[in-house]
């Protein structure tokens, strides 16, 4: 089932224009990618808010209708008001349905109630909650299921142990040295061992400086 979001083109840009739009219950947004010029657009705050109540919207190819033109996009980034939880800006990335895209997909851990070790008091430690995958837009999964029902005490599942849908690849495992990138995703551990690991991790983080991560090559937005 396709999901459509309506938008209109806009000419006014900048923080002042964005504030005026929000007072009018409109949300500034931008759509870019696929070798085309970026377009500044406006969304209805109620429509985009209702759309995002459906979690599948974050991992679906959407039909973005700008005036009379419709093009496939995915949500690449969005910002919310820190107090009101209203959407304040959205970045859409155009997609070519014939070319693979890379995007983050959440992990869904299942079988916890059937895990014998956890029934006896073991703790589930989730190291990763989402992974970046590469696939054709038509194959884009909404979640990656991780079955932990048979995971015994001190056992773990790594990236190479995930069961991936057909046509979907974990991008971290495409860089040549698979062992170097094959990180643990989830483990069943004794509570004491898990507490000790958390202490070690917190001590290792002390004194670390702020780290800036690189993002996609996209145009400057007009969000605040």
TrEMBL record:
<dbReference type="InterPro" id="IPR020056">
    <property type="entry name" value="Rbsml_bL25/Gln-tRNA_synth_N"/>
</dbReference>
<dbReference type="GO" id="GO:0022625">
    <property type="term" value="C:cytosolic large ribosomal subunit"/>
</dbReference>
<comment type="similarity">
    <text>Belongs to the bacterial ribosomal protein bL25 family. CTC subfamily.</text>
</comment>
<keyword id="KW-0694">RNA-binding</keyword>
<feature type="domain" description="Large ribosomal subunit protein bL25 beta">
    <location>
        <begin position="101"/>
        <end position="192"/>
    </location>
</feature>
<keyword id="KW-0699">rRNA-binding</keyword>
<dbReference type="InterPro" id="IPR011035">
    <property type="entry name" value="Ribosomal_bL25/Gln-tRNA_synth"/>
</dbReference>
<comment type="subunit">
    <text>Part of the 50S ribosomal subunit; part of the 5S rRNA/L5/L18/L25 subcomplex. Contacts the 5S rRNA. Binds to the 5S rRNA independently of L5 and L18.</text>
</comment>
<dbReference type="InterPro" id="IPR020930">
    <property type="entry name" value="Ribosomal_uL5_bac-type"/>
</dbReference>
<dbReference type="Pfam" id="PF14693">
    <property type="entry name" value="Ribosomal_TL5_C"/>
</dbReference>
<dbReference type="InterPro" id="IPR020057">
    <property type="entry name" value="Ribosomal_bL25_b-dom"/>
</dbReference>
<dbReference type="GO" id="GO:0008097">
    <property type="term" value="F:5S rRNA binding"/>
</dbReference>
<keyword id="KW-0689">Ribosomal protein</keyword>
<keyword id="KW-0687">Ribonucleoprotein</keyword>
<protein>
    <recommendedName>
        <fullName>Large ribosomal subunit protein bL25</fullName>
    </recommendedName>
</protein>
<feature type="region of interest" description="Disordered">
    <location>
        <begin position="193"/>
        <end position="224"/>
    </location>
</feature>
<comment type="function">
    <text>This is one of the proteins that binds to the 5S RNA in the ribosome where it forms part of the central protuberance.</text>
</comment>
<dbReference type="Pfam" id="PF01386">
    <property type="entry name" value="Ribosomal_L25p"/>
</dbReference>
<dbReference type="InterPro" id="IPR029751">
    <property type="entry name" value="Ribosomal_L25_dom"/>
</dbReference>
<dbReference type="InterPro" id="IPR001021">
    <property type="entry name" value="Ribosomal_bL25_long"/>
</dbReference>
<feature type="compositionally biased region" description="Basic and acidic residues">
    <location>
        <begin position="208"/>
        <end position="224"/>
    </location>
</feature>
<dbReference type="GO" id="GO:0003735">
    <property type="term" value="F:structural constituent of ribosome"/>
</dbReference>
<dbReference type="InterPro" id="IPR020055">
    <property type="entry name" value="Ribosomal_bL25_short"/>
</dbReference>
<feature type="domain" description="Large ribosomal subunit protein bL25 L25">
    <location>
        <begin position="5"/>
        <end position="92"/>
    </location>
</feature>
<dbReference type="InterPro" id="IPR037121">
    <property type="entry name" value="Ribosomal_bL25_C"/>
</dbReference>
<dbReference type="GO" id="GO:0006412">
    <property type="term" value="P:translation"/>
</dbReference>
């Amino acid at each position: 089932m396709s999901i459509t979001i309506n938008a209109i083109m806009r000419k006014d840009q900048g923080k002042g224009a964005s504030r005026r739009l929000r007072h009018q219950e409109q949300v500034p947004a931008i759509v870019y990618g696929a070798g085309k010029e970026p377009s500044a657009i406006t969304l209805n705050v109620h429509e985009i808010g209702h759309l995002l109540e459906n979690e599948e919207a974050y991992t679906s190819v959407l039909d973005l209708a700008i005036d009379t033109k419709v093009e496939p996009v995915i949500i690449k980034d969005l910002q919310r008001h820190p107090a009101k939880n209203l959407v304040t800006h959205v970045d859409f990335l155009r997609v070519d349905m014939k070319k693979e895209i890379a995007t983050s997909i959440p992990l869904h851990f299942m079988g916890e109630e059937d895990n014998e070790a956890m029934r006896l008091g073991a703790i589930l430690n989730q190291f990763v909650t989402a992974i970046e995958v590469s696939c054709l837009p038509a194959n884009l999964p909404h979640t990656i299921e991780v079955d932990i029902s048979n995971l015994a005490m001190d056992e773990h599942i790594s990236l190479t142990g995930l069961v991936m849908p057909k046509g979907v690849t974990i991008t971290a495992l495409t860089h040549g040295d698979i062992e170097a990138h094959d990180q643990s995703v989830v483990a069943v551990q004794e509570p004491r061992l898990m507490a000790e690991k958390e202490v070690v991790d917190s001590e290792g983080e002390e004194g670390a400086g702020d780290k800036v991560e690189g993002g996609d090559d996209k145009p400057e937005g007009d969000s605040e």
